[in-house]
Amino acid sequence: MKVLRVLNNNVVLARDEKGQEVILTGRGIGFSSSQGKPVDAALVKRVFVPADGRDPDHLAEALALISEEVLHAVVTALGEAGIEERESTRPTLAIAVADHIAGALERAARGTAIEYPLRAEVQTLYATEYAQAQRLLRAINERLTPELDASEATALALHLVNAGFVSGDLSFTYTMTGVIQQMLAVVRERYSLGVFDASSMGAARFITHVRYLFVRIQQQKQLKGQESTIGKGIRQHYPEATRTAQQLATIVELRLGQQLSEDEVSYLALHVARMTMDANGTAT
Questions:
Q1: Which string of DSSP letters, residue by residue, matches 108-164?
Q2: What is the distance between the alpha carbons of residues 53 and 166, in angstroms, rounded to a whole number?
Q3: Looking at residue 8, which CATH number applies to its domain?
Q4: Across residues 176-193, what is the average pLDDT?
Q5: Tally of domains in the chain
Q6: What is the C-alpha to C-alpha distance for residues 165 and 174, in angstroms, rounded to an integer?
Q7: Residues 6+ positions from 74 with CB-CB distance below 8 Å
Q8: pLDDT tens profile 195-251
Q9: Which of 62, 68, 77, 196 has its CA 20 to 30 A from that of 235?
Q10: pTM, entire model
């Protein structure tokens, strides 16, 4: 590998054997490096491979602002917490988590606490990521001081959820969380469900489906084309759920400015039907 740019003593941008730009970190790796010079492999601690069209220069600059101690603790903790191993080589997640942790450590040192208003929603809607975030926080607290409050698991969970989107901006994840809550409220009202178990199989399937729907919306990959036979069958079999799904589609369009395709509405109707039948004790 050859150096393209030295960001600081611990971060360099390089080109690997495959011709792709990679970000290398390691204590002192940039100290004696210069543009065009081969990288000293012995100094390479981590290799980050930019993905999804992210600008390597921008990511490298962001990494250069994070201390080596915090970055090392976060990357190690990501693996120890059971986050998919490939995530720890993707700079976007490592940068987002490490940047958050660096800020959280500064706040903790000053004795400043933050109350995360989405804590209940995150625990309910993103149970898997929240459990991962709790493990991640414990692993980070074992390596860094001062110890961070348990409430930081909420923010970490949102970063884990956000890792599935093209954009690194958490605002989309915040919007998605609010829209899912609004959708569930509409279903509860239309079917007079009162308070139903959001962890039930039907609700869990609905939430998972909507999350992947949001990914498809952001990536411009909605299920669409000629109206599918399956979609028509769903709408005919579940007319009330279809009307509800159309109302939910209107919410998505108003909040995100994206109109859902007929097939997306149909599959949304299927999950509405399943969720409400589960809540009413009816077999699907």
A1: HHHT-----TTHHHHHHHTHHHHHHHHHHHHHHHTTSSSPPPTTHHHHHHHHHHHTT
A2: 9
A3: 2.30.24.10
A4: 92
A5: 3
A6: 12
A7: 94, 97, 98, 101, 140
A8: 667 677 888 889 999 999 998 998 888 987 556 788 889 999 999 999 999 999 999
A9: 196
A10: 0.81
Return phi, psi of residue 256, to 5°: -115, -10
Joined together, the tokens standing for residue 169 give 């901006």
